[in-house]
Specification:
Layout lengths: L63
The chain binds zinc ion.
Length: about 60
Amino acid sequence: MDTTFIASRPSGRTRRPKTYRADRVCTDFSCQTILSRYNKRDACHIHAPVKFPRIRGRFEDDE
Ligand SMILES: [Zn+2]
């Protein structure tokens, strides 16, 4: 096995922000919203699946 190319990787040298392709559009069929390069999702903020945190009455301290 040739292990020449797995020797050393320059890691932690430059910390680039994680970016994505700039020409992506929302996965919604009828949506043409161009996604931000920093948007890790495949849909715009309208069509991206939203998690609803279950905070309803959770932090209410009613006896
Ligand atoms: Zn969309």
